[in-house]
Amino acid sequence: MTPSRRTFIRTLTAASALAVTEAVARPFGPVAPAYIPNLRRVSPNDKIRIATIGMGIQGNYDTQAALRNPDVELVAVADLYDGRLEHAKTAFGKDKNLFASRDFREVLARPDVDAVLVVTPDHWHDHITIEALKAGKHVYCEKPMVQHINEGKPVIDAWKKSGKTMQVGSQRISSSAFQEAKRMVQAGDIGTINYIESNSDRFNAIGAWNYSIPTDASPATLDWDRFLGDAPKHPFDAKRFFRWRNYKDYGTGVAGDLFIHLITGVHFVTNSMGPTRIYSSGNLAYWKDGRDVPDIMTSVMDYPKTAAHDAFQMVLRVNFANAGKISNVTRIIGNEGQIEFSEENLILTKRKLPIAPGYNGYDSFFTFTEPVKEEFKRQYDAKYPPETRVAEPVKEVRFDAPKGEDAHGAHFGDFFKNVRAGSQGTIEDPVFGFRAAAPVLASNESYFQQKVVHWNPETMTMKTGEAPASTVAKKKK
């Protein structure tokens, strides 16, 4: 930061500060927030100055991954819990005076912030993202992009109008294994896709979101009312604040937290826009700790034939009570083989049937009369010469990600590259992000409403004739 910029930041007018303070006191009121527009363009040789909004677990990991890229500097953080602000100053501000605030709009008002990382509970994603884009900031928003389906298009509209770069944070697709899977599928290595299955199982308390709660958690040390935002009002509850993923008022359950990674990967590899029909089932089997979202869920999704692929079925599963062997992979199955992959590696298995179908064994051939058997064999031999009766040998190709690969850092690298280029064409832009988020949010809709949800992936709307359900519509306050 140049001295002139430091001076400018220190001398922000009292009127601007007052306007921001009044706006954040009424985050959803009729008065629009006041912004100090960020008119600074990032040149290829400049540092990109970032701010992280939400310094919880993922906020810290995202910040670390972002800073592993060259010429990126953290200048501000926001969080609703004082302890996390203090931790951020220690972890990221040892050699400088890191700006830290409970109020994310104070961060957006800073002209030295080029881009923000939105790493808050899901119910704040759309609000902060839209405000950040209006304030002229580039945005990296954690998955899922939105908490409710009706929030997706407003985010997309705000992004398009802003001209800013926006990336959604499902970083696995920036791994070399996912990119190799995409190359193989597009090359036709497994033939025509007909079925995909993907799972993300766990069996431990922290994996089931029972995160540690600080001993000083209280209404004095955190902003409970601001945390609630437009969610239903509720008395202070530290569990809800620090374990918000367990409650549908603030999170999106296993679908929004884990299905989103699975479906993002599949869409990336197959170039799919999404399913047309979604059905989910599951239950709360093990973690009966007051949460109101399931710990076991399976979703079946029907993908239509498109120019990119034939029709296929996809099954997604999460089981937080899997005490057996856990093998979390995605399997894409075609009529000439399959690809089984995770973030770390990939196995391609090619297997083609012989042209000749064969006969005998568990077959009706043995029930024929002898004359019919002879005639059948004569016709079979004429139709299928010997070379058509032998299948190609099964081929297996293994791909391992390079040692030390940093998919998380690479995902941010794509974001920063596009920020410098003035491009909106990231690997996971808001249109891609919403096409991945909507089906998993529909999975929740199906589970809680016990119905099949019909979706139009091209127009990104509920199909005609489907009445909007209570969990999809979200009343703004």
UniProtKB/TrEMBL annotation:
It comes from the Bacteria. Residues 207-270 form the Gfo/Idh/MocA-like oxidoreductase bacterial type C-terminal domain. InterPro entries: Gfo/Idh/MocA-like_OxRdtase_N, Gfo/Idh/MocA_oxidrdct_glycsds, Gfo/Idh/MocA_OxRdtase_bact_C, NAD(P)-bd_dom_sf, TAT_signal. Keywords: Signal. Residues 1-25 form the signal peptide. Residues 48-169 form the Gfo/Idh/MocA-like oxidoreductase N-terminal domain. This is Gfo/Idh/MocA family oxidoreductase. It comes from Fibrivirga algicola.
